[in-house]
């Protein structure tokens, strides 16, 4: 614990370090600094430079104090990784040797009740990762039934979305829905008798969070930027926690990379090459020690020597599996 702020256990640390293989004088971007677990290990492994980005102002100010000792080897940026190119050009950097993305929320966010990310604590409905004006309170209390149902279905993959949306609207007629527990009780009522392994509110809360923070578009933008930011041989490493995110990463790799073998034979038609197309998952012992790691999916590719060939308009959010309402 640090100033009573919950700590975050970094996921798949060994796998990330092995792929990234930090070297002196190289520069890496950690797009999702969080508690700085991955960044700290990277900085401790070699005399390298890390640009640590996080959209959450709380995370940012915490890390400013915590990691002073790294001096100018660590550059902190408070902002969204969807604007990667802008962020690094503002600090005079054009190319880097790796881009790392560890998606989702940190335990610091999840376990700080007043942030409203978790149905396990009673708190105002919020879930904003940054200073977004709209919060989940606005979505729940202002959106039309059909839009609510679509958000819960598309972003949460919740099969009972229509019933949940209907019950939210019914409840709203009586009084505004203010708290996580109020929302969770409506969801539980809507899913009565269907309580299996995961909590009935998991999918709806996750869907609302992903929609509110525009998380899929953020991911898509960062993937696209990586083509122009990575040096030849540079690594793009992504850990996702949700099938919607993983689908986008998987398809991005599918459409934009070739095998290492083809690349070594001189094929430079695409901007990335892969050593394996298979997803890497946490070991059983990591899952036992840190159950939050259980849904982690890691994928990675390397930048080829191909000139920047894929201009933005050759990418397509929907083709890569993105969803929008
Ligand atoms: C899973 S945590 C990262 C944990 C970190 N790797 C560690 O070891 O401590 C994800 C972090 O990414 C941040 N984040 C999520 N989406 C973001 C985005 N689009 N831009 C910048 N930061 C983002 C969240 O605020 C959160 O702090």
Q: Number of helical runs? A: 14
Q: How many strands appear in the DSSP assignment?
A: 8
Q: How many domains is the backbone divided into?
A: 2
Helix content: 40-55%
Mean pLDDT: 94
Q: In the CATH scheme, what's the topology name of the largest domain?
A: Rossmann fold
Reading the helices and strands in chain order gives: HEHEHEHEHHHHHHHEHEHEHE
Which shape, going by the Cα principal axes? globular
Identify every distinct bound molecule in the structure, by name, code or SMILES: S-adenosylmethionine
**Which strand order do you get reading across the main beta sheet?**
3-2-1-4-5-8-7-6
Report the top-level CATH class of the largest domain. Alpha Beta
Per DSSP, what share of the residues sits in E-state strands of 2 or more residues? Answer: 5-15%
What is the strand and helix layout of this fold?
Layout lengths: L12 H8 L6 E4 L6 H9 L3 E6 L2 H10 L7 E5 L5 H7 L5 E7 L4 H4 L25 H7 L2 H12 L4 H14 L5 H11 L11 H11 L2 H15 E11 L2 H14 E3 H5 L7 E3 L9 H6 L7 E7 L22
Parallel strand pairs: 1-2, 1-4, 2-3, 4-5, 6-7
Antiparallel strand pairs: 5-8, 7-8
Helix pairs in contact: 1-2, 7-8, 7-10, 8-9, 11-12
């Amino acid at each position: 614990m640090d100033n009573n702020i919950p700590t975050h256990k970094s996921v798949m640390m060994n796998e990330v370090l092995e792929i990234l293989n930090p070297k002196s004088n190289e520069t890496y971007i950690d797009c999702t600094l969080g508690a700085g677990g991955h960044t700290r290990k990277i900085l401790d492994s070699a005399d390298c430079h890390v640009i640590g980005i996080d959209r959450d102002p709380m995370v940012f100010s915490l890390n400013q104090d915590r990691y002073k000792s790294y001096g100018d080897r660590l550059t902190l940026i408070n902002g969204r990784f969807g604007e990667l190119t802008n962020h690094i050009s503002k600090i005079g950097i054009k190319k880097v040797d790796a881009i790392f993305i560890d998606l989702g929320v940190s335990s610091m966010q999840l376990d700080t009740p007043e942030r409203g990310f978790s149905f396990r604590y009673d708190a105002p409905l919020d879930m904003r990762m940054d200073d977004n004006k709209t919060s989940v309170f606005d979505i729940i209390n202002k959106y039309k039934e059909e839009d609510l149902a679509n958000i819960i279905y598309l972003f949460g993959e919740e099969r009972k979305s229509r019933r949940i949306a209907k019950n939210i609207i019914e409840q709203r007629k009586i009084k505004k829905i203010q708290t996580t527990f109020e929302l969770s009780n409506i969801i539980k009522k809507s899913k009565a008798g269907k309580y299996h392994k995961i909590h009935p509110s998991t999918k709806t809360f996750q869907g609302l969070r992903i929609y509110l923070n525009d998380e899929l578009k953020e991911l898509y933008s960062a993937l696209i930027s990586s083509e122009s930011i990575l040096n030849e041989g540079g690594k793009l490493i992504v850990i996702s926690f949700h099938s919607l995110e993983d689908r986008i990463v998987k398809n991005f790799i599918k459409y934009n990379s070739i095998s290492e073998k083809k690349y070594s034979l001189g094929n430079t038609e695409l901007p990335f090459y892969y050593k394996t197309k298979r997803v890497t998952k946490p070991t059983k012992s990591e899952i036992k020690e840190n159950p939050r790691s259980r849904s982690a999916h890691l994928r990675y590719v390397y930048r080829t020597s191909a000139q920047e060939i894929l201009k933005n308009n050759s990418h397509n959010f929907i083709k890569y599996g993105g969803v929008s309402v």
